[in-house]
Amino acid sequence: MSDNALELKDVRKSFGSSEIIRGANLSVAKGERCAVIGPNGAGKSTLFNLVSGRFGVSAGAIRLNGRDITGLKPFEINRLGLARSFQISNLFDKLSVYENLRCAVLWSLGYKYSFWQRLNGLRDVHERAEMVLEQIGLRRQRNVPAAVLTYAEQRALEIGITIAGGADVILLDEPTAGMSRSESDAAVELIHKVTVGKTLVMVEHDMSVVFGLADKIAVLVYGEVIACDTPANIRANAEVQAAYLGHDNDELAA
Ligand SMILES: Nc1ncnc2c1ncn2[C@@H]1O[C@H](COP(=O)(O)OP(=O)(O)OP(=O)(O)O)[C@@H](O)[C@H]1O
Fold this sequence. Notes:
binds adenosine-5'-triphosphate, alpha/beta, Rossmann fold, P-loop_NTPase, globular
């Protein structure tokens, strides 16, 4: 059995004649928190779309917990234990916080539920939704429609929806985008808490979030992972510094 939760082997993705992911290799160990950083347009979101099955790879292989998931559909990958959040809100605005979580739990269980299991199953779904509600600190807003939450609360709910199905590999796409410093500090604390014992892979531009959360940082430049190392080694890496010149280098050097 592999000790890696996620492995990308020479993954490639072209859109028409443009090759966007150009032989990306990445290994994320079970229980590790890995941040994927890189200049705008480097292919970070595309990489997430490949891992979650939204896009098919043009070449290469992706393994989840040692199992080849290349070519599987998003819901099949989800049911093998990988859940992802999106940059764009995934909430049902008119449903309450609790109902959003309950839907996420139900969806993740999918076809596993037969008619005969249904009664017991619904109790499990309720308990799981309540547990996530507690974890994300929105118990007080339980019955409030998602649309009425503050922006930071909505992002917390999105994280709750992502973890609701109990996946052990979590992909978060820019979880603190658009937040104030204090909101993103709270989000870092929340993400840290809800990913204990899980594997986290996140795309993030805010370097204080990256350095506050990641055990390991992968640097994606023009569709290739040019470095993957501890935060301290990444900060000191001359190739990474050069790749960031003209981009976010001030933050990286901070
Ligand atoms: N479905 C698609 N069809 C064609 N080109 C695409 C598609 N998706 C992404 N691209 C192109 O792939 C390149 C990488 O985009 P991607 O969104 O993955 O980069 P990114 O590193 O996430 O950027 P950012 O940091 O700005 O979010 C861009 O040039 C984009 O236009």
